[in-house]
Structures are given as structure tokens and as C-alpha cells.
Specification:
binds adenosine-5'-diphosphate; binds magnesium ion; alpha/beta
Length: 246
């Protein structure tokens, strides 16, 4: 089982988009996948119309969460929304608060991939995610602040891993929302590939309107328009993740 956190301290970089499309991509390749919505904003769960007070909040309590098979071999655990925020407050004073999710999710282990769609704030839920994950994917948008955001994400991950004494490996940095028409995209991508020649995924996710539209229809990009550039990029990324043996 590969336990992958899709994480970044920067919002709007494509964490949820990547989780949904890689998750569906992996399941279409015959893998059994659980996508965990670790963001109280509930974006991932909303795509599948899932709202529940028994989501990640329940897992943090050591209780069972609602898990729904949204497509063949593809499961979603919702975040719990407001309940997750409330429970984080309670959890703040409790013992073993960092390993709650790890313990609950370990019991669910009967799958090939667990993809955790993280929020952009380094809260207790994300600390719990990092105490469970063995790999992280860091999506990076092609804008001016992306490199400093990446540095901040690295530092926080390192910090949390030291505190929880749990090691996670970087599976890859993912360039997202690459706009071929703009110089800034080429420049930022150039900087990233010089700084992280080995860590950067070969796949680049281009800016694509279909990727923006598909969640509104409750669909992954493969259901919404399999022939668009966004689907092509996520097929490539799925293949790269399947081939990963680090
Ligand atoms: N490659 C892309 N092309 C066009 N729009 C995108 C792309 N990736 C993400 N988006 C859009 O950008 C917004 C933020 O993406 P999202 O995946 O929700 O980011 P995060 O989860 O990191 O906050 C959403 O409206 C999403 O549809
Ligand atoms: Mg998100």
C-alpha cells in the first residue's frame, strides 16, 4: 500500500484537482484507491456530493468514518467539514494526538493507494496525515510566489517529521497550471527544474479549462472529456506514479 499526501502550504495549486484525477486514473488501472478528504473545506467530498459528520473527524476520534465507493475500486472518506475544525480544537490537548489518523487508517489497509488531499494550513489534521503518509506530492503553481511557498512547505514537513519521528519521502514536485502562452510559466518551470532536477515529475500539468469545469459536474477529467489536454496530462502523471518504485 502506498500512502501519499498531496500537500502544500499554498492554496489553489491543484491539490484537490490532482487527488481526484490521479485517484480515478489509478482506479481505472485496476488499483484499489481510497481518497481521504483532509481539508475541512470539503472540496473533494463535494465533487461526489458527500457530506457527513463522520469523516476524518471520526478517524481522529478513533471511530469509524463513512466511506463511499464513488466509482469501481475508488473510495472517498469525507472530511467532516465543520466537525473536523471543532474536533481539532478538542484534540489539541489530548495525548497521542499526532498518531490518531495513522492508527485509524492502518485498519483500512486493504487497498493499493491512499491519497490524502490536504488543506493548505499546517494544522493538526495535516500533522496526523504526515505521521501516516510515506510519500508526499507537492503541487506547485507557475507563479511568482511558488518557489518561496515550496521552501516553506519543505521546512514545515521537515519540522513535523522531526516532531512525530516519522519519515516521509518526497515522491515528487508537480508543476501545475502551466500556461504555455506566458513567460512566467516558462521562467518558474526553468527555476524549478534547475533547483530540483531529480525531484520534479516529468509530467507537467498544463492550464486547462476542462480541468476547472469538471468538478462542477461531479466528474473526473476522464469522465468529463477524455480527449482534452488535461486528461492527457493526468494520464501521464498516473503512469509516472504507477511506475514509481522509490
Ligand atoms: N491545471 C489546471 N487548469 C485549470 N484550472 C485548474 C487546474 N488545476 C486546478 N485548477 C483550478 O484551480 C482552482 C484551485 O485548484 P484546487 O485543485 O482546488 O487547488 P487546492 O486544492 O490546492 O487548493 C480550482 O478552481 C481548480 O478547478
Ligand atoms: Mg483543495
Amino acid at each position: 500500500m502506498k500512502k501519499i499526501a498531496i500537500i502544500s502550504t499554498k492554496g489553489g495549486v491543484g491539490k484537490t484537482t490532482t487527488t481526484v484525477n490521479v485517484g480515478h486514473g489509478l482506479s481505472l488501472n485496476g488499483k484499489r484507491v481510497i481518497m481521504v478528504d483532509c481539508d475541512s473545506q470539503n472540496n473533494l467530498s463535494d465533487i461526489y456530493d458527500m457530506e457527513s459528520d463522520r469523516g476524518v473527524n471520526a478517524l481522529l476520534m478513533g471511530k469509524r468514518a463513512w466511506m463511499c465507493e464513488v466509482r469501481r475500486n475508488l473510495f472517498v472518506i469525507p472530511s467532516g467539514g465543520r466537525n473536523l475544525i471543532e474536533y481539532e480544537w478538542k484534540l489539541a490537548t489530548q495525548k497521542n494526538r499526532h498518531r490518531r489518523l495513522a492508527r485509524s487508517l492502518e485498519d483500512l489497509a486493504n487497498c493499493d493507494f491512499v491519497l490524502m488531499d490536504c488543506s493548505s494550513s499546517m494544522n493538526l489534521t495535516n500533522i496526523n496525515v504526515l505521521a501516516f503518509a510515506d510519500l508526499v506530492i507537492i503541487p506547485v503553481g507557475m507563479d511568482y510566489f511558488s518557489v518561496s511557498g515550496l521552501k516553506q512547505t519543505f521546512e514545515l514537513i521537515k519540522d513535523i517529521c522531526q516532531r512525530t519521528e516519522h519519515h516521509v519521502r518526497l515522491m515528487g514536485i508537480l508543476a501545475t497550471q502551466f500556461d504555455v502562452r506566458t513567460r512566467i510559466s516558462r521562467e518558474i518551470y526553468g527555476v524549478l527544474s534547475r533547483m530540483f532536477p531529480r525531484e520534479l515529475f516529468n509530467t507537467v500539468i498544463h492550464q486547462n479549462t476542462k480541468l476547472r469545469e469538471s468538478p462542477a459536474f461531479g466528474k473526473s477529467i476522464f469522465e468529463y472529456d477524455i480527449s482534452c489536454n488535461g486528461a492527457r496530462d493526468y494520464i501521464k502523471l498516473t503512469a509516472e506514479i504507477l511506475a514509481y518504485d522509490g
